[in-house]
Amino acid sequence: MKVGLVGKPNAGKSTFFNAVTSAVAQIGDYPFTTIDKNVGIAHVRKPCPSKELGLIPNPNNSLSEDGIRYIPIEVIDVAGLVPGAHEGKGMGNKFLDDLRQADVLIHVVDSSGKTDLEGNSVELADPLEEISFLENELHHWIANIIIRNWSRSARAVEAGEKIENFLSERLAGLKISREAVILSLRKSAISKPIMKWDIDDALILARTIQQVSKPIVIAANKADVASEQNKKNLERVSAILTSSDFELALKNASKANLIEYSPGSSKFSSDSSNLKDNQINALKLISDFLEENGSTGVQECLEKAVLDKLDLIAIYPVEDETHFTDGQQRILPDAFLLPRGSTALDLAYKVHTDIGDSFIRAIDCNSKRVIGRDHELSDGDIIKIVAGS
Ligand SMILES: Nc1nc2c(ncn2[C@@H]2O[C@H](COP(=O)(O)OP(=O)(O)OP(=O)(O)O)[C@@H](O)[C@H]2O)c(=O)[nH]1
Ligand SMILES: [Mg+2]
Prior knowledge:
Layout: E1 2-6, H1 13-20, E2 38-47, H2 49-53, E3 63-65, E4 68-77, E5 104-110, H3 128-147, H4 150-158, H5 163-171, H6 178-188, H7 199-213, E6 216-221, H8 228-236, E7 240-241, H9 244-255, E8 259-260, E9 269-270, H10 277-293, H11 298-309, E10 312-318, E11 336-339, H12 344-351, H13 353-357, E12 359-364, E13 369-371, E14 382-387
Parallel strand pairs: 1-4, 1-5, 5-6, 6-7, 10-14
Antiparallel strand pairs: 2-4, 3-4, 8-9, 10-11, 12-13, 12-14
Helix pairs in contact: 1-9, 3-7, 5-6, 6-7
């Protein structure tokens, strides 16, 4: 599962990235600090079934702490986009190819209003403008891929090739499925004959494709220094107020054993006798923010992207339905994220192609009932797959 961070320069993408991954990307208070992409691993939280079962898990592909399972996802941080990027402005939009494999995007907006769309310092910018410009650039990126060599492509379609086949082949590199192409063609209902399509028609289709295949969560970042008006405006468009800066500070303070904090929490604990005055003051600012907003918002963005937008559920495959262990006696070793509606057979294929190919039956380890290949899995299920050799 891959989450891409997008936004104008200087909005805080790399700060967000550093706050949620163990990677260290360069951060700077000027545009285009990032040029080459950064890739790292972050985690989304789910309740760990070990807690209810009274077991101590031995996590393998994930982490488990205090009854919470932290399931890994990949996060990609890229260069900033500016208006006109599709015409080559700023860094252009070629680097968006770094996001081809992203399943969902987080748009990091600068809610402080202190930088313009190019990422330069200004007094009063309207963060709402970032949203339409960024979507427009994303749509141009997809549309240009659709419309490339159109007259030749359209001739092939006129000659009998199905448009959905042709487009899904063209968009496969963007991790856009055939089903998504079919749905988008239906939703965008372009009535013009294919021969006559131009960039505007491609843009209409690109918009739907983006909504279907690269959904966006908006992070109203720098909320720690945003005006009440900006925050209100951004909340109206369902943005999540975030302070990547605070989340990064909490992560670093926790790593240095100055505080106890787990990502997404509404509080942290500290022993002020270990802290210097400036640290106490900084932490006071952060705890006020947490009190007002419930969290730094950063973890919430990741989870809204992965668990809500992509609607993924967590499944725990095991080999021993009595002890909930794998072949090495590890208790509840793995947690997999699967689309809601996935079946026992889908899980088998996720574990291994061979196991999918030789699937016989599965066991729901909570109820100990045998389930068939088409059985729809529920969030938190612990499943044993029985496969032939
Ligand atoms: N107050 C505040 N400042 C932030 C926050 N997040 C980032 N910043 C600051 O904003 C500036 C830009 O941060 P970066 O993370 O480098 O921004 P970016 O979007 O990666 O920028 P480019 O790589 O240039 O596109 C830095 O000075 C950060 O310290 C935040 O939540 N609050
Ligand atoms: Mg950056």
